[in-house]
């Protein structure tokens, strides 16, 4: 299994009493809650933490995209990836990912990603997402066209990376007389593509298509739901006529390691509860606006969103559900081994800083996980078998 340090870069100084006046830390939370002096410190601190992960031997570092939110301060993740492209010396840099349907010009992402791929000498992973409902409210894009804009933007980017230009592109949403990418990607035919998702069935079927075989990365699902989604990917692959490997499956998961179970739980409790109950909090309308998804996918996504975004979570509850791993190195190793066996994943994006977790605890968390957990999973291969 390969390990990546995934940073959300939240506004860690958030006044958690905001819930007395506002329903979410996204979209409707006034930006008067943001202090640029604190933001300056947090951005640089968070970059330090990702650079430390690289020094400790993580296989890569990950950033992502969110808009108008205290939950994640990266509306333009390529800025963070660019800052890391010269300081991350060993691992890969992954953007998880750019929300393609929000873009008026998807070629800007083809260019950004190609630049990062060249700067890093091929140590770049391209992530594409549709984006959650908040992003559509924030940008004014009609969510009814989300899926078709995503597919069209994706096809344009892949053609721009792989076909000799200039050539014209005529689509329903995007039209260009000249597609002629400078620079071309360093990796040929193009960088690896990852597709993070909360559980859209259309996304899983599309990602597993033999023309793509993209990595499906599950986010914020409990272990039982995640297991079913991994099986869905494997079943789709079988229907297409091939067997999916663990290298095509991954999971993003907040993790906290300390010297003992008792210390880990005591230290993590206020921060993981703030993460789920304050930073992630939003209404279903914010997450899934009308027209965004199909009825079949909506059923799965509502289960995930109800558990993740609006419930009054305790550390004990999210730990039991498998939405958070916490404990001593031995405990985390045992639970992670269970996850690896059940899910059959080849990639783990570990969220080592969450919510208001301070730098000192984040640093120790990274060190203990890298030194006492990761080595036990190197070179192991499991097929995955959900009961």
Automatic annotation (TrEMBL):
Domain of life: Bacteria
SUPFAM superfamilies with a match to the protein in the record: Bacterial luciferase-like (SSF51679)
Protein's UniProt keywords contain Oxidoreductase: yes
Ranges where the Luciferase-like domain occurs: 43-342
UniProt xrefs under InterPro entries: Bact_Lucif_Oxidored (IPR050766), Luciferase-like_dom (IPR011251), Luciferase-like_sf (IPR036661)
Enzyme's top EC category: oxidoreductase
Molecular-function annotations in GO: oxidoreductase activity
Keywords: Oxidoreductase
The enzyme's E.C. designation: 1.-.-.-
UniProt protein name: LLM class flavin-dependent oxidoreductase
Species in which this protein is naturally found: Cyanobium gracile UHCC 0139
Native organism taxonomy: Bacteria, Bacillati, Cyanobacteriota, Cyanophyceae, Synechococcales
